[in-house]
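Whether sequence alone determines local backbone shape is best considered at the level of individual chains. The sequence in question and its structure tokens are set out directly beneath this paragraph.

===
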Amino acid sequence: MDDRTVRSNPDTYGMASFVAGLCYEHIPGEVIERIKLLMLDSLGCAIFGTGLEWSRILIETLAAVDSSTSCGVWASDRRLSAPHAALVNGTLVQSFELDDVHRQGVLHVGAVTLPPLLAVAELRPGMSGRDLLTAAVAGYEIGPRVGMCMGQEHIVQGWHSGATVGVFSAAAGAAAALRLSADKVVHALGIAGTQSAGLMAAQYGAMVKRMHAGRSAQSGLYGALLAERGFTGITDVFESPYGGFCTTFSRSQDRFNRAELTAGLGERFETMRISLKFYSCVGTNHTTLDAIRLMQARHPFGPDDVERIIVRCSQATLEHAGWTYRPEGMMHVTVLLTDGTTLEETVETPRGSERHFPEPSDVTAKFAKLAGRILPRQQVEHLAETVLELDKLPDVRALLQILAQTATR
């Protein structure tokens, strides 16, 4: 790539340089510990998802047209081609609305990053646990920054960010796993970026919403694998004034902030701002549910005891019912019981948020509860131990073998 091209795509190339140059030794210890918990959480969500109807339909449909056996469907004896495995596994992580979220970037990061990354690990044996963690951090850092660049307006316009922004996390993670040069990472991002698509109308009961993350995972994997072989993409995918990601999806020349793409990259880790979900519902409702739980702890009550529940929230939260995504803002909840008791609680940040991140024991408990619905207890415990000790694992095939074990008791 010549100097002129480098200067014309400073943000794309800056992100690509970060991905290509990231090494385990330069990642802070707290980030390593956090990424392991985030990965475990996503795997738990995916394993639970194998038992759901929409997951079954997708897996059976793809198995009927794909006889390849390159990569496994997690917690299943099914094997598919790498792109189809990434599609399924990404869908599994998002299958029950319990996976992580970077609230500022409006992105479920694990669902789009881990499936292509583990597909690469199967395609290219010999990856160490530290290599896997490093590539995961690369993916977890890139996608949220694209989301912050686009801002909340992106989803307000009707784009589903997991399907549009997610391709960049997927491509970055896969490219890091393949150890692509910065020039080739530029092309991987450019190939993935032009595959961005996804409509928020899918949220209204459609099964296909879950597949948006899987499609991003698949697109990112395609981007990295093609770039590795010399296939070229849009080298200024973020900067292009006509047809670039930022200008096209914002329908403007200025309703985005490209400075967010590389601000603090390698120094401030967005991985630490990823939240976990403990309720299978939209994030803006979590503070309300936390408040109700706290009130129940002080004064036990059930559905039959409730006369009325009043939720006082910000206008932004109210609009989220119409799908303007702004998860910040406190919830003030009043519960009126049939015996005349009035209970009140205010919760500013939900349990699991970056400012209220759960203890490791809470994360492993959530994982055990989800994965334990599908896998035997011994296998669940073995998988958790392996993920939490990834930095000591010389070869991630041990992890892949556990994930490939049949989901039978």
